[in-house]
Fold:
Amino acid sequence: MNSALMDLKILLPFKVFADKKGISRIVVETRQGSLGLLPRRLDCVAALEPGILTYETGAEGEVYVAVDEGVLVKTGQSVLVSVRNAIAGTDLSKLKETVENEFLAVDETEQKIRSVMAKLETGLIRRLAEFRSG
Structure:
């Protein structure tokens, strides 16, 4: 095995989406912007935003994967990406559209749900406090 190449594993909640070897570079979207990984980069952990993960191999060339939010962990030559959802494709514009329509829309819905839940919890706590003092 060539030590100048990385292994990439993309995990979804219930299955392994991709398990690739011989990766020469990886680019992902984080909260701080794009993050590029080369084989000799120091080990790291990064929180991923919904976006396009790009990796390159000698055999396949550049490969694009639309990924939902998650986490990336690089240890040695191994890169592990754990995300809620992923979609592979060759048309970059369609993948970007998928990220915008599916992954980001879910995030907006989740934010609304969390906001409603926080209001419900606050109301419940207030009523419990009133009940105890009354």
